[in-house]
Each structure stands twice: as C-alpha cells, then as structure tokens.
Amino acid sequence: MPTPNLNLYPPDGYRYEDPKAGVISGGNWPDVIRKLRDFRIRHGIAVGAPQTEIFNQFCSKYPEQCKPSISPENTKQGFVVDTRKVDFPRLVMNWLAAAYTKVNKGKLGWVSQEEAYRRAAICANCPSQAVWTTLCTGCNKNIHLLVDDLMRQRKENAVSRGLQGCTTHGEDVRLSVHLQQADSNNPKKPPHCWR
Q1: In angstroms, rounded to a whole number, what is the distance separating the alpha carbons of residues 105 and 139?
Q2: CB neighbours (10 Å) of residue 33?
Q3: pTM here?
Q4: Contact 79, 123 (CB under 8 A)
Q5: Is 151 strand, coil or helix?
Q6: Helix crossing, 50-61 with 29-42: angle to 10°?
Q7: pLDDT at residue number 111
C-alpha cells in the first residue's frame, strides 16, 4: 500500500471523497481515518479498511507525494507503521497516559509557544515521524479526546497540528513538542532531534 509522505502537506488538505459520506476532511490523516470509520459504524456500513482506501485515493491523485508500500525495513523512514507487526501504538499510548497524568498533577510543564513551534518544524521534516493508530476504533477516539483535552491549553499552528508519532521515542509528537522534557539519550535519535 502506498502511503503519503508525512513531511509534505497535502495540496487539497487532509481529505477523502467517499461515495456515501461525501468529502471527509480533518486536521491530519488519523483524523480523516477516524471520521470515515465512525461514519460507517454510525450508518451500519461495513468498516472495511479506511486507512488503505484513503491512502490509495490520495496516492492515485498525488503519486509524487507518496512513498512505496510498507515493509519492516522502511517503517523507521517516515512511513506508516503496520500496527500488526510493530507495537508502536502501545508505546505511544503508554507515553500519552504518563504525560497526561504528569501534566494534570503539575509534574510536567509547558515550553514557550515559540519553542514548541521550533520543535514542531524539526519534527515535521523528520523521517522518524509516522502515523500511529490502533486497530481499536474506540481506543483511537479516546486517544484523540485525551490529546485534544491537553492541547486546549495551547495554541497550535498548522505544522504542530499535523504531527503524528515518533518511532524513535515512542511519543505523540503533537503533544511532545509542547512539553518540558529531559534530553533523550536514545542512540537511535537523528542528529537534528531536539530531544
């Protein structure tokens, strides 16, 4: 399955034209995938494979903005992670749960908006960034609600809103760039990484 290059903003935005739902748009690919899945569930339509359908439609229209099929070798190069083979979503969910608790208990603070935007610009062009979703529709919805709840305290720009997950650190990058965090000593982090 071809996948959109996450380092490039889609020319028409994040959208999918569905024969029954019409145009579905969102702030990022996981948002569009979730909306299509939710529409089908609400209307008693077989869920199918929303991510595959959305990516195939986009990549047939904009092949120059897509990368080839997923394989274990290229998941670390900015491709969508195959959640059946890699436990990446679980890492991100565990990180999110811990971050959510720390922020609400006042044990984890926020960086300045300027610093968050600087970090977001770095992550937007990083090959370690990957779309992360679970195979559980309810879980994905709850995760988005959790992140949205925290991000109400912040101002986001188009770059930070479109961030996904970090395959190097197992974090939700949309939230991570806004938080005060210790420097990472992960030997696999790219040389340009702010962590």
Answers
A1: 23
A2: 25
A3: 0.55
A4: no
A5: helix
A6: 130
A7: 93
What are the DSSP E strand ranges found in the chain? 3-4, 14-18, 22-26, 66-67, 129-130, 165-166, 171-172
CA distance linking residue 176 with residue 53, whole number of Å: 29
Predicted confidence at residue 10, as pLDDT, reads 86
pLDDT of residue 68: 61
Residue type, position 82, single letter: D
pLDDT of residue 66: 80
Instruction: Select from 190, 144, 143, 139 the least CA-distant residue to 166.
Output: 190
Structure tokens at 83: 């959640």
119-148 average pLDDT score:
78
Amino acid letter, 157: N
Across residues 140-146, what is the average pLDDT? 74
Q: What is the pLDDT of residue 70?
A: 41
| Residues sharing a CB contact under 8 Å with residue 23, sequence separation 6 or more, in sequence order | 15, 16, 17
Count other Cβ atoms within 10 Å, centred on residue 29: 23
H helices of 13-87, in order, are 29-42, 50-61
